[in-house]
Amino acid sequence: MVGERVIGSRIRERRLDQGLRQADVAETVGISASYLNLIEHNKRRIGGKLLSQLADVLETDAATLASGADAAILDGMRAAAARFPQNVEIARAEDLAARYPGWASLIAALEVRTTALESEVQALTDRIAHDPALAGALHNVITAVTSIRATAGILVSGDRIDEDWQQRFHVNIHDDSRKLADESKALVSYLDQPKSSTHKSAPMSVFDQAEAFFAETPDLMAAIEASPEAPALGLLTSFEKVRLDRDARVLVLRHIERMKADVQALPKNTFDAAALAALGDPTKLAAQFDVPLPVVFRRLAYLPADVGLPPMGLAICDAAGALTTIKSVAGFGLHRRATSCPLWPLFAALGQPMRPIKTEVILPDPGETRFLCFAVATTKPLATFNVAPQVESTMLVAADPDPGHGDPLLVGSSCRICPRSDCAARREPSVIEGFV
Prior knowledge:
Layout: H1 7-18, H2 22-29, H3 33-40, H4 48-57, H5 62-67, H6 71-81, H7 93-99, H8 101-130, H9 132-155, H10 163-191, H11 206-215, H12 220-226, H13 232-239, H14 246-265, H15 268-277, H16 282-289, H17 293-301, E1 312-318, E2 323-327, H18 345-348, E3 357-362, E4 370-379, E5 391-399, E6 409-410
Helix pairs in contact: 2-3, 6-8, 7-8, 9-10, 11-14, 13-14, 14-17, 16-17
C-alpha cells in the first residue's frame, strides 16, 4: 500500500499541475510566498479557512487536499492496475488521483463495470448449463429443426415419391415450421426477461429455489436453535415468502432436517462459546464434541455474526462432483455446474475419503482473494446391505486467513471465465483470456 501523503505535498503537486506560480497563489490567499513554500514542504501545518482558500484557488476541494483521493477510488484504480501489473505504475495511483480526479474516477468506474461483466458472464454460463427451462426450450427448437431437415432431405433426394406421401411431407414441414416458430418465440421471450426477474416470475431450478429460500431467511437458523424439536414443515411454512415448487420444498425440508440434527448434536448454548474459544478450528471442535467434521463445518457456516467469528461459506457435493449445497460468503460462491474448477479441496477430497484436507487457496481476481478451506469426504449411513457407500464431500471456507498454512493453491471458478493461462487443469479456453 502507498503511504498517506501529507497535505503540503498535495498542495504543491496540485499547484504545479495547474501551472500556477507559488507567489501568485500566496498573494491570492493573503500569505507570503515563503510561508506557502514552508507549507508545501510540510514544515507548517494547515487547516481551516486557509486550506479552503487554497482549495478554491487550486480548483479542488479541501477534503481531497486533506486526506488525498477517496479510498474507494484508489482501491478501484489499484484493482484495475493489477490486471496489467507489468505495465502500470501501481505505486503512483494516489499521485494520478490527486492530479486527475476525473480520470481516476473513470478508471475506478471501469473496473467496477469489468467486474460486473465478469460476474454476468459467469451467471449466464451457469444458466446455460443448469437452467431446466432453457434446456427444454433449446431441446424443442433442435427437435423441430431436425424434423424439418429430415423431411426436406427426403423431398430433395431425387427419389420418386407418391403424391400422397409428398402431401404428407409438406404438411409435416408446415406443422414443424410453425412449431419451430412458436418455440423460437418462447425461447427469445425467456431470454429477454429483465435482469431483475427472480424465481417469483422467472423459471428457476429446484436447487436455485432452495438456495434463494435460505438466502432470504437468515433468521431460520436462530429459529431452529431456539426450538430444535419444531417440525421441519412448520419451520418451512413460517419462513416461506414465495411458494416453492414441490421438488424444491423437498430439498428445503431435507436441508432443514439436517440443520435440526446438527443443532441437536451441537447445541447453541455450548457450541457458540466453544467455537469462539477454538477460533473456529473445526478439528478442535470435532474432537471436543466427538462429532464428525461435516457436522462442525455446517454449524460453523451458519454461526450468527454476534458470536465474533468471521462469516464462513459452505459447499457440499456428491461423488459425481455435483454441488448439492452452496452457502456463499463475500468473494466465494461456487456455481452449480459440472465444469467447476477441479482444484478446489472440495473435489480433491473425493479421491481421499475420510482424510481431512486443510488448504489455503487464492482466487484469480485482481485482489487475489484468499480463503482457508477445510474439506473432507465421508460416506452416508446406509440402512440396507449390499449397497455401495454413497460418498459426500463437505468444504468449509473461511475468509482472510492468517499466513502460515503452507503454499497456497491457485484455484478458479470455472475454466470458461478463469484468466489463468498456465493452469495444468484447464479443460477449455477462457472467454476472457487475453483480456485480463
